[in-house]
Specification:
The chain has five helices and 18 strands. It is mainly β. This is Phosphate-selective porin O and P.
Length: 429
């Protein structure tokens, strides 16, 4: 899911990691000639414009929100305007080899995003990798879980869009919540945020490695992690998440920044979350494929959620509680591709779909987004992304909602979802 130029940038910034299409290796390993300390950083100033109007026509108790923007049409994390300039990410870090068998990775983020929702600066990565055992590297600390390919991509060098797909955003970004009151075992419960987003990360220990046989490469990862907020290394309970990922790649040619391949992967995260006074099952799983050769890139992934599922604010207006289901399900997928049609230009296209809260007919909603993108690579350290997203939301089971104000309000909110235009500059140093 990246262009060769993006990989070349990463190679330059992170000093020569050679597993260009294997993010488990790329983010956890160092080459034999790596230096003890190599610093890196990046800024991502962004502008977003959502073509939306303030709500009108809402009835009943929701009438108080007429004249306000739905949070679906506001920019996180401030939730103030549908059009906003912000520095979404401001990263600074270091990595290197301490000796022949130990390397480290540490990074901070001072951007305006969900991870930094409660804090101006957040530690996002802090890990040590031990390579004493052949075939079983051990990585410990805070780092990305071995889940979705989209989640694993480095946003500063290789992610081709401004915003995540709906499926990855709603199922994997990690929205820590706690119950506002009584827990509804078969429907939605009221919830509030208990910390910032996880950003696809967790504290834990991972065993992983890669094996190459002629043109084939095989990778595995098994991670035991806290399953809690990343703001503290301490686990809030004695329960752990187990996340597994397997990947097979057929190497098509090239090495390092020029590597081209066809890969397939599967992953599964199994854990539980404390909500109210009880623990509820939380499962996430997915399967996908990716391809990179020459000037062309394509990828697709299917994701599924079971058990604990957290939705948006209900009704979706500033200050309202979140909806959480403890026995819910969701499914979604994306398919995307890119074409480098000139040395400095790349066109990207993505379609993503999400079917959310499928176990409660009145709460089920479907999201479909088509993203048209254009990237301009100014130099090896600087690029600009232009995205336009056609966004649609559907009330899946209108007849399950009581006729009158509730049904009318649901349609008004769904039909009011606006398209989104975004521009982002990435400058790496």
């Amino acid at each position: 899911m990246r262009s060769r130029f993006g990989v070349a940038m990463l190679m330059g910034l992170l000093s020569g990691a050679v597993q260009a299409s294997n993010w488990l290796q790329l983010q956890g390993n160092e080459t034999a000639d790596a230096q003890p300390i190599r610093t890196f950083g990046f800024l991502q100033p962004s502008y977003t414009f959502i073509d939306a109007k303030k709500a009108s026509g809402l009835q009943g108790t929701a009438a108080v929100f007429n004249g306000q923007y739905s949070t679906l049409n506001l920019n996180w994390p401030e939730l103030q305007q549908p059009h906003q300039f912000q520095v979404i990410r401001a990263g600074l870090g270091a990595r290197g080899r301490l000796n022949d068998d130990i390397n480290y990775f540490v990074a901070l983020d001072a951007g305006q995003n969900g991870v930094n929702y409660y804090r101006d600066i957040m530690l996002t990565d802090a890990s040590l990798t031990f390579s004493y055992i052949p075939g079983a590297r051990i990585r410990a600390g805070l780092f990305k879980l071995p889940t979705s390919e989209e989640a694993l991509l480095a946003v500063n060098t290789s992610y081709p869009y401004v915003y995540n797909s709906n499926a990855v955003l709603y199922m994997l970004v990690g929205l820590p919540v706690q119950a506002n009151g009584a827990v509804n075992a078969s429907g939605a419960s009221s919830a509030k945020l208990s910390s910032g987003f996880s950003g696809f990360r967790d504290w834990g220990v991972q065993v992983y490695d890669t094996f190459v046989q002629e043109q084939w490469e095989y990778s595995y990862a098994a991670m035991v992690s806290n399953g809690a907020a990343i703001e503290s290394i301490n686990d809030t309970d004695a329960r752990k998440d187990l996340t597994l990922r397997l990947q097979t790649s057929y190497l098509l040619g090239g090495k390092g920044p020029n590597r081209e391949d066809l890969s397939a992967f599967v992953w599964r995260q199994n854990g539980s979350r404390l909500f109210g006074t009880e623990y509820f099952r939380m499962v996430r799983e997915g399967v996908g494929i990716k391809y990179l050769q020459g000037d062309y890139r394509a990828s697709a992934e299917y994701l599924r959620a079971d058990g604990m599922v957290v939705g948006g604010q209900t009704p979706p207006f500033v200050g309202q509680a979140f909806a959480a289901g403890v026995s819910e399900k969701a499914r979604g997928w994306y398919v995307e591709g890119g074409w480098r049609f000139m040395p400095q230009w790349e066109a990207d296209l993505r379609y993503d779909y999400l079917d959310f809260m499928t176990q409660t007919a009145a709460n089920e909603r479907e999201f479909a987004t088509t993203t048209l993108g254009l990237q301009y690579f100014i130099d090896p350290a600087t690029r600009v992304i232009f995205n336009y997203e056609w966004r649609a939301m559907r009330v899946s089971n209108l007849s399950a909602i009581a006729a009158g104000a509730a049904r009318s309000n649901a349609l008004i909110i769904a039909n009011g979802l606006g398209d989104r235009l975004s521009m982002q500059l990435t400058w790496s140093f």
